[in-house]
């Protein structure tokens, strides 16, 4: 690797390149150190170890992408994250709606049909973790993505309607609305097979990401560099033949399988 500093992509929330470069080095080291213990963790059935390894690999993927990494390298790290997620799930990692949505997005992005099928077959009860408190809109967003992935569009449409209707009531907390409203709108556009609505939803998602990640310490979170859930949904949109006419720095079409 060159000794010259790598240039950061132009993110509207303006993260600090030096902090992200340091984070990339640490994330790589942590992942690689973890891999030396993976065989023992698998033998001991430690699902949480692989959940954490998946998070580390995803962090590297986001940071590599942020510094202009080639699509093939970023996909390789996403595949590593998916492999860790698949192992965690096989070892009994408890799922909540957010983790289910994230894992399904990784399975879709990396074209892992076996893992995707497994996640598509889970009922709400199977991605309910009593230790995790989540508003109903989190479950509805996860159900909508699951049902789009398994081509049950009437069920997905119902989940989207119910989720957006609940947001209209103001019942969820503001941060929960911010997290899931744009996901539900993306899902609704896919269900409707409406490319224009999809473009508007992508723009709204990008605006939401910028608004959230420009606040305080959020600015330098690796999660603000690459929108995995959004990319998973755009991959599902492309499966339905939808034209994707716009993108954002966090939703690069180069990572969406044709």
* Shape category: globular
Q: Structural class, judged by helices and strands? A: mainly alpha
Fraction in helix: 55-70%
Strand fraction equals under 5%
Order of helices and strands: HHHHHHHHHHH
Spans of at least 5 consecutive residues with low confidence: none
Terminal Cα span: 30 Å
Number of strands: 0
> What Rg is obtained from the alpha carbons, in whole angstroms?
18 Å
Largest sheet report = none
The overall pLDDT, averaged over residues, is: 94
Please tell me about this protein's structure.
This protein is mainly alpha-helical and 258 residues long. The protein has two domains: 15-93; 94-258. Helices cover 65% and strands 0% of the residues. It contains eleven helices and no strands. The chain has helices at 17-35, 38-43, 47-66, 71-90, 97-109, 113-120, 136-149, 153-169, 174-192, 195-213, 228-239. α7 (136-149) packs antiparallel against α8 and α9 packs antiparallel against α10 (195-213). The radius of gyration is 18 Å and the shape is globular. The protein starts with 16 loop residues before the first helix and ends in a 19-residue tail after the last helix. The mean pLDDT is 94.
Please outline the helices and strands.
Layout: H1 17-35, H2 38-43, H3 47-66, H4 71-90, H5 97-109, H6 113-120, H7 136-149, H8 153-169, H9 174-192, H10 195-213, H11 228-239
Which features does this protein show?
mainly alpha, 258 residues, 11 helices, 2 domains
In short, what is this structure?
The chain folds into 2 domains: 15-93; 94-258. 65% of the residues lie in helices and 0% in strands.
